[in-house]
Amino acid sequence: MFTGASGPLTPVWTYDGTVPGPMLRLRQGQPARIVVENGLNEDTTVHWHGIRLQNAMDGVPGLTQPPIKPGTDFVYEFTPPDAGTFWYHPHANSLVQLGRGLAGALIVEEAEPVAVDRDLLWLLQDWRLAADGQMAPGFGSTMDAAMSGRIGNIVTINGTVPIDQSVMAGERIRLRLANASLARIMALRFEGHRPVVVAVDGQPCDPHEPEGGRLILAPAMRIDIVLDMQGDPGKRYAVIDDFYDGLAYTLTTLAYDTASSLRAHPLDVSPGLPRNPLPEPDLAKAERQEIVLQGGMMGGGKLAGVGGMMGMATPGMNGGAAWAINGMSMTGDGHAGMAPQFTLPRGATCHLTMRNETAWWHPMHIHGFSMLVLARNGSPVPHRQWQDTVLLAPKDTIECAFVADNPGDWMLHCHVADHQMAGLMTVFRVT
Predict the structure, then answer these.
(1) Both 42 and 161 in a single domain?
(2) From CA 94, how far away is CA 148, in angstroms rounded?
(3) Spatial contact of 217 and 188, defined as CB atoms under 8 Å apart
(4) pLDDT tens-place string over residues 19-65
(5) CB 91 within 8 A of CB 57
(6) Is residue 9 in a domain?
(7) Which residues, in sequence order, are CB contacts of 243 under 8 Å at separation 6+?
(8) Which has fewest Cβ within 10 Å: 82, 204, 285, 300?
(9) How far apart are CA 224 and CA 195, in angstroms?
(10) Same domain for 234 and 190?
(11) How far is residue 244's CA from residue 222's CA, in Å, rounded to a whole number?
């Protein structure tokens, strides 16, 4: 009932009957075993987004495992090395399966509890609904494929249209923000508050206030913030998403209880989180690789030539290519026999440059690794941020580094699902 209590019901696809799927809580360094039964009438898989796990458990059909056929199951077993905020979603027919609701949060708890009063999760999704409350048709349309992707018209927090979020004056909240939308990028502002970023994509960073007070959250990204609730009892403060020019809206409202403040002064404990055991890149000996993002609709409604195929009438049509990486378009979700873009010897440091030659934004997601973000357009990136999903603005160049310590064939793709399906994906190999 995304359209309100009196509105029509919206049919969705779910994990265990809920949207989002059940929040899975694992312990850092403790083995997990998750059985996935496929009750759909099409193939599926589950990708454990951001978890540095063995290749066979990564959930890419054909590339790392056979797809889970209807009526069968698959057992995922892995030991999460990192504490933090992660999520899970299909990697088969992902545009439709994710767009119809298949997503859930996966939280890996720190060995020692963190000094906060409450630990909250907002799993953010958007939905494109028709006037009758049904899922709008047209998944994979040419326009979505070649432009900004399937952006919805309803935004939910944890599966419900947002209502007031009850808070208490003086409390410290750890708020885990996760964007499980197909294409919507968000820029969140917490009016009257000063959020402190303590982790990005599940990996702790140097605690810092975001630039301009805005938290930029692209599809698949997670940001953990610490909020010291310094507002006045009984007052209400808006949380605003103003990413798209002229389309700002109030996502939700922080509604303070009328009770007096929980404590006289904010907690005098650093909000920093313990670091995860990530191998440190050796930049002096790094292997340099570059990927260039190409294609999409350019100015004047023209499609850029993709993969040398200038003659294509309408790229993006019927699963065709609208995008390319280094001149190659891999479409769909992954399949057997995908040739790697580059190969890294196990243990090598990879210095990866990603160059966006398109007119569109792309959250680029790497499987199996977290990357230390070094520079954006030649300027160093502060706060030691490790990310598995790096947002490239139009014409951006971003430099990252990671240690290739996890063998296998790994996906690297845009997490705007329309872009991935229409060619913005590649594979690299660690031997």
Answers:
(1) no
(2) 17
(3) yes
(4) 999 999 999 999 999 999 999 999 999 999 999 999 999 999 999 99
(5) no
(6) no
(7) 184, 185, 186, 187, 216
(8) 300
(9) 10
(10) yes
(11) 19
Q: How far is 84 from 222, CA to CA, in rounded Å?
A: 9
Q: pLDDT, tens digit, for every residue of 280-312? A: 999 999 999 999 999 998 765 556 655 444 334
Average pLDDT, the chain: 93
- The verdict on pTM exceeding 0.90 is yes
Domain tally for the chain?
Answer: 3
Which position has the token pair 């796990």? 53
Amino acid identity for residue 334 in this structure = G
Asked whether the predicted pLDDT for residue 174 surpasses 50, the reply is yes
For residues 414 and 424, is the Cβ–Cβ distance under 8 A?
A: yes
The total of other beta-carbon atoms located within 10 Å of residue 354's CB is 22
- For 199, phi and psi rounded to 5 degrees? -155, 150
Q: What is the pLDDT of residue 32?
A: 98
What pLDDT sits at residue 313?
39
Residue 200 CB: number of other CB atoms within 10 A?
26
Considering the domain boundaries, does residue 92 fall inside one? yes
Quick check: 402 pLDDT over 60?
yes
H or E, element range at 79: none
CA angle, corner 144, sides to 14 and 141, nearest 5? 80
Asked whether the beta carbons of 213 and 225 are under 8 A apart, the reply is no
CA 145 to CA 306: how far, in whole Å? Answer: 13
Encode pLDDT of 125-139 as tens digits.
Answer: 999 999 999 999 999
Give me the residues paired with residue 196 across strands.
226
Tokens of 117: 């009063």
* H and E: helices and strands count for the chain: 3, 29
In a domain, 388, yes or no: yes
Residue keyed to tokens 């209590």: 5
Instruction: Give me the domain span that covers residue 69.
Output: 21-109
